[in-house]
Amino acid sequence: MAEVSKVMSDSWYQKCMPLIKEVEPHLSNIVKSIRNLEGINYLYVWGSCFENKDTPDFRVKDIDIIVETDFNSGDLISINNEIIKQNNSSKYLEEQGFYPPAVKFSQEFMDLHKYNVDHWAISADKKLLHWGPMLVNKEESEGMNKEAENYASIQTGYNRKKINKSSENVRNNWYKIYNDYIEKQLSDMPSGWYMSENAEIKEILQKAMKI
């Protein structure tokens, strides 16, 4: 019986665009698997989850998690999707020029994909990195996000406000169109760590919540 209850309580992440009130109780649990990895200092939630923390019925597209690390940005940027998919030994990684703890961290962090986590990291040299293709500055990124939302709204007839109260099927369709638009814009960029330009770390952490 306890196991059934656990499955039911964990099913929130299977929903497309879950409510803030569905996400918040699980924030600490979704990062538990990486909290004790070498090189990790602090974990934060930011983005729409943080900005709408006082609006329990707001629906989030994804969950932005920032990990503050001891890894140099160069060690992270060298890691791509092919490396983390392989079960290489530390010796092999070192011979190929990788820092094994940074690879292990990336592998474990990517395991949070099932929770629709958007993966961010702050390096030891105070650079903001994102796993997966991104535009190099905040203004361009926000602009593309707005374009994708507008495109999804035109295709479905539901804007960002209406989608919050729509059915699961409508949300699934809206989110797929939104996500496909962004992926198409970045399709020529391989998966891996990307560094954001001109990111003010202190300002970012002021708009984030430690978890």
Can you offer a commentary on this structure?
The chain is an alpha+beta fold. The protein folds into two domains: 2-133 and 189-210, no CATH class; 135-188, no CATH class. Helix content is 45%, strand content 14%. It has twelve helices and six strands. The chain has helices at 2-10, 20-23, 27-30, 48-51, 73-77, 81-85, 90-95, 100-110, 138-156, 160-163, 168-185, 201-206; strands spanning 40-46, 63-69, 117-122, 128-131, 193-195, 209-210. The chain has a six-stranded mixed sheet. A hairpin with a 5-residue loop joins strand 3 (117-122) and strand 4. The longest helix has 19 residues, at 138-156. Mean pLDDT is 86; it is low at 1-8.
Quick recap:
The chain is an alpha+beta fold and 211 residues long. Helices cover 45% and strands 14% of the residues.
Annotate the secondary structure layout.
Layout (H helix, E strand, L loop, with lengths): L1 H9 L9 H4 L3 H4 L9 E7 L1 H4 L11 E7 L3 H5 L3 H5 L4 H6 L4 H11 L6 E6 L5 E4 L6 H19 L3 H4 L4 H18 L7 E3 L5 H6 L2 E2 L1
Parallel strand pairs: 2-3
Antiparallel strand pairs: 1-2, 1-6, 3-4, 4-5
Helix pairs in contact: 9-11
Low-confidence stretches: 1-8
User: Helical region count?
Assistant: 12
The share of residues in extended strands comes to 5-15%
Helix fraction bin: 40-55%
Number of strands: 6
Mean pLDDT: 86
Q: Nearest-angstrom radius of gyration? A: 18 Å
Structural class computed from helices and strand pairing: alpha+beta
Order of helices and strands: HHHEHEHHHHEEHHHEHE
Largest sheet, spatial ordering of strands: 5-4-3-2-1-6
Shape: globular
Total tally of structural domains: 2
Task: Report on the biggest sheet.
Answer: 6 strands, mixed
N- to C-terminal distance:
29 Å
